[in-house]
C-alpha cells in the first residue's frame, strides 16, 4: 500500500537554503528502495522551514530508506542546520480522483 | 512553479470513509485545471481524519480549482461529513532528489 509522508523541518535562521540543497541532492538509492515521489519546497510565509511530501511503495520501504548508509550520512550532515522543530503527518494512500477513485 | 498542498480534514465520528469516497470520486476537471497529483489516505492512528497531498502546476491553478462548479458542489456535499478540524501546510516546490536536485 502506497505510504505518504508530509513533513516540515525547521532550519536554523539563515540556513534554510542549505537544508534545501541537502535534501534535493540527487539520489538513485531512494528510488531503488521504493521512493516514488520526493518533493522539497519552501514558503515565503515560513522563511525558516523546509517542507517535504514523499510517496513510498510501502511504509516498510520508507523505514528501510532510513537505514541506507547514504541516507544516514545525509541525516548526520543535515543535523547542524536543523532547529529541532518538526511537524507533519503520515498516512496510507487509499485512492485518488485522478486515477478514478479509491 | 509547482505548488504543493498537504492537508488533514477531520471527519465526524464514523463518517471518515464516506469522506474518502467523496474525495476520491473520479474527476477529469482537476487534471484539466492543473492538478498533477492528488492522493487521499487514512491512518490507523487517527481514525477520524482524512489526509491529502496534492501537487498543482501553480498556486493559481489550485486557487482556480476551488472555483470549478464540480469542486464547489463537491465541497458543499462533503460539508455534512466534516468536524471542522483542518490542518496541514502549503509550499512552493523547489526540487527533488529523484529528479537530480533543485
Can you characterise this structure?
- Chains A, B: It holds the Pfam family ABM.
- Chains A, B: Residues 3-91 form the ABM domain.
- Chains A, B: One of its GO terms (molecular function) is monooxygenase activity.
- The structure is a homodimer of 102-residue chains.
- Helix content of chain A is 29%, strand content 42%.
- Chain A is an alpha+beta fold and 102 residues long.
- The first copy, chain A, has a single domain, classed as 2-Layer Sandwich (Alpha-Beta Plaits), CATH 3.30.70.100.
- Chain A binds chain B through residues 2, 4, 6, 8, 20-21, 23-27, 30-31, 35, 37-43, 46, 51, 53, 55, 87-102, and chain B through 2, 4, 6, 8, 20-21, 23-27, 30-31, 35, 37-43, 46, 51, 53, 55, 87-102.
- Strand 2 (35-43) of chain A pairs antiparallel with strand 4 (82-95) of chain B, so a sheet runs across the interface.
Oligomer: homodimer
Structural class of chain A: alpha+beta
- N-C termini distance of chain A: 12 Å
Relative helix content of chain A: 25-40%
Give a brief rundown of this model.
Two copies of one chain form a homodimer. With 102 residues, chain A is of the alpha+beta class. Chain A is built from four helices and four strands.
Features:
Alpha-Beta Plaits, alpha+beta, monooxygenase (chains A, B), four-stranded antiparallel β-sheet, oxidoreductase (chains A, B), homodimer, 42% strand, 29% helix
